[in-house]
Amino acid sequence: MVCYHNEPGFEDQKEAKDIELIHAYNLKIQHETIRISVCDRLEHFLAIKRVPERVPEQSLLQRPFLSPSYHPKPYLPPAASTASKIKFSLPSSSAPFLASVTTTTTTTTTSASSSAVSTPTPTADTEPAVPAVDTPPASSADEPEPEIDALAATVVTATAIAAAVASTSAPVTVAPASISHILPGMTTASGFTQPRYATTHSIGPEFEDASKRLFLCYYENYVETVKAEKEKVADGTAFKKMPFEGMGNTMDGCFNYAALLSRLIRIQEALSAETRGWMSDSARWISEDTTTAANLKRQYEQAREHFRDVTDATVEVSLVDNNPFVWEVVVFGKPMTHYDGGLFRLQLLFSDRFPDVQPRARFLTPLYHPHVTESGVPWYRPARTDDVKTHIVALARLLDEDPSPDPLGHVNAAASRLCFGTREERKEYGRNARRCANRSVEYNV
């Protein structure tokens, strides 16, 4: 990983020390990626209940992806004067995150017993308040506006608005473009300190489904990684702080691979239960003659005719119990390939939300391939996600074409190491693939 080399201060470190720090940095990045980007996200999508994380309040902005049950009170700065203008001009380096923020709040004068803050108006009996000698004069419009940190600007601006609302009963005017950008992981308005995964209303079914399908593809790699690192790092070991961490940019915490492993297993079980639920619900979808049921019936007839008319077709398609939501596909290995003479059965299970939710594919016959997990989950890309025929074509090409060197699709670690290894390792991969094709016939008898 080269992310450590891109951090500030790396050029000031000694080579020997950098090697140690790079390893420590990669370990905690890997741990937190699985914990946050994988476990937290999938548990939210699947509504899996988990124990909330205990995160100190000062770490709130350092970790935007917190447990949905964790909502600390935002810091409210002292209330401003009755006619105050809060204006922040940020440096150009902060432009991608925040724009220049201008908020003008105007409050009406209230009685002396009111809790709202107001500026006393001078009368004939009272003299205007004179600032103390040590008090610096108020800045004028001609003076340069102060530049502040982008993160601080976001917090102060949002909390200043909240403070103005809380300190007066009069209407508060906020320009629509007062806050044009929010830091990643935060939401606007009163929930600006809430984690992103606590309010995911903007995430569509396509993103949620893609996250689930990718988890099924990489699940075995996740488990293998967690088990391997668990033997190297004891749970409870604190993350090593990097030289460039500080000033609100830190990653605190400790390793807990045992918890990660149990969370990964629960997510996989929940996804398997969800897929089984599609099969049980399909009877109701068929009886209700839903739009998806009619669509899949029509696509099945078109796909069967297509593969029957193609002379060099190596695919047979059928429905399980005449159920349009459960397809069975048989792929025959082509001559002059590693899978020559092989016969591989796979199953496609559909949700009633297809094509927004893609089918769950799984090889029922063991297939030794870099793009197929040991449990039979394939990594593939159809030409059109709404056309089942293109899904089948993409799956059949796994046996016809050489595996892609793109590591994104290497979901079988053992097969990938041999397939893209040395010359002798590639020979061993070919022997394993041909052995798999020979056994496939016996497996389907």
CATH topology name of the largest domain? Ubiquitin Conjugating Enzyme
Mean model confidence by pLDDT: 74
Sheet bearing the most strands, described? 4 strands, antiparallel
Radius of gyration: 30 Å
Low-confidence spans: 54-78, 80-159, 168-202
Helical content (DSSP H or I, runs of 4+): 25-40%
CATH class of the largest domain: Alpha Beta
* Number of helical elements: 8
| Silhouette | globular
Class inferred from helices and paired strands:
alpha+beta
In CATH, the homologous superfamily of the largest domain goes by the name Ubiquitin Conjugating Enzyme
Q: Give the total of domains.
A: 3
CATH level-two architecture of the largest domain: Roll
Order of helices and strands: HEEHHHHEEEEHHH
The N- and C-terminal alpha carbons lie at a distance of 47 Å
* Arrangement of strands in the largest sheet: 3-4-5-6
Report the count of strand segments.
Answer: 6
Strand content: 5-15%
Protein name: Ubiquitin-conjugating enzyme/RWD-like protein
Pfam families: UQ_con
Organism: Jimgerdemannia flammicorona
InterPro entries: Ub_conjugating_enzyme, UBC, UBQ-conjugating_enzyme/RWD
Structure, described:
Helix content is 37%, strand content 9%. It is globular, with a radius of gyration of 30 Å. The model is unreliable at 54-78, 80-159 and 168-202 (pLDDT under 50). The chain has three domains: 4-54 and 217-271, no CATH class; 73-114 and 136-192, no CATH class; 289-443, Ubiquitin Conjugating Enzyme (Roll). A four-stranded antiparallel β-sheet has the order 3-4-5-6. With 445 residues, the chain is of the alpha+beta class.
